[in-house]
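Lecture notes, unit on binding sites. The following record was shown on slide 14. It pairs a sequence with flavin-adenine dinucleotide.
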Amino acid sequence: MVENYDVVVVGAGPAGSVAALKAAEGGANTLLLERYHLPRYKLCGGGVANWVIRRFDIPKEVLQRRYEVLSFFTPPRYDRHDLDLGTTSYFGVYRDEFDYYLTTMAVKKGVKLRERMKVTGVIKDKGQIQGVITSKGEKILSSLVIACDGASSRIAKLSGMWGDWGHCSEKKWYDQMSYCVGIEVQLGKEIIDKRFENSYMIFTGKDIAPLGYAWLFPKRENVSVGLGSMAKTLERKPMEYMNHFLKHNKVVSSLLEGGKLIMSKGAWLPAWKPIGSVYKPSFGAGLLIAGDASGMVSSITGEGIYYAVRGGIEAGVTAVEAVNEGDFSANFLSKYQDRWQASIGTVLDFQDHIFKETVGKILNIEDEKEREEQYERGFIQAFRMLIDFIQEYAKKKQN
Ligand SMILES: Cc1cc2nc3c(=O)[nH]c(=O)nc-3n(C[C@H](O)[C@H](O)[C@H](O)COP(=O)(O)OP(=O)(O)OC[C@H]3O[C@@H](n4cnc5c(N)ncnc54)[C@H](O)[C@@H]3O)c2cc1C
């Protein structure tokens, strides 16, 4: 028998779990499909905005560390520059624990979860998405599909959205992406407390991450170390940059001295999009797209959890309205885009603007040496402008 749901959500990352949670909370019969067994590890810095922690009451055990200071290290001397995060503080989490907590919340609200269930196809009739097909060949019908399947969203691609967005060839897709590698270094709580205190760290430099950056996010017992660059700017294998960074950067080697490597991994991130903003439209007939699948990521920092969660909330709320009205047309579902535009659009658009005005302009400088020198300056300037903007924005929203 073919199963039939009001809403099928693909992907149990932050966007998917929250979208499913909101849909079920509003009374929609909701299925959440995830390709991996949960909880699943995901390569990530794991820096989550305070707003998300408060909104979903994330328990203390999941919060590995609080960050109040963002420290920059730039060439040639790698002196330290601290930016006080003020009210925009962040928490460090591991994504298996954090994401699974959100998934569990969704299940408690009545979402049916199926793990190890990879979606490989969509059911489409007269331009309307009407369900999905799994790798086992199973057809699942639904009035609405919410694609939350991450950076290389198969659902968005199969639904024909990549054509609308200009992702039409694999080559173009690659040009718009960052490639990241990450490792976990075990150091122990006592040493981490002493060396990192309440800060997390960013490093720039051509030898570390050409036109990108590297990060150190300390957790309770380990430090997450990663780096990411526009994929097309990489001249060597990403792990070679990482090895060079660990071996030759004196600040990093002393911060991580005595540490033990316990894991390494690579991942794509939809940052550095030349077109800048979130991919639009983020809806179609019978379809909503949220989180990385729709490019909801800061152009400057690569932060995406906060935006995935906000996109997920708006997708879930819109799904409930569509179910109640029995209207799954693109016209009705367009209100989803208006909603996320109102909640996160301003901040994302502003980041695109800062990016274009600072780093973006610098990327166009022809002389390579000048471009690199300017990049360091422009990058810090972009972060500083972003933090100031977010603090001002948060203040205004509170009043
Ligand atoms: C190296 C790195 C570091 C990052 N650091 C940070 C950070 O510190 N802070 C921050 O805010 N953001 C960070 N990000 C960005 C952040 O990870 C993403 O923006 C965020 O995970 C987006 O959430 P999502 O739910 O949209 O997608 P994801 O978290 O990617 O979840 C997608 C889910 O869909 C599942 N899936 C995929 N395809 C299918 C399929 N066909 N069928 C079924 N299931 C499927 C996947 O298994 C996955 O569970 C980082 C990203 C990278 C790559």
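Take-home: The mean pLDDT is 90.
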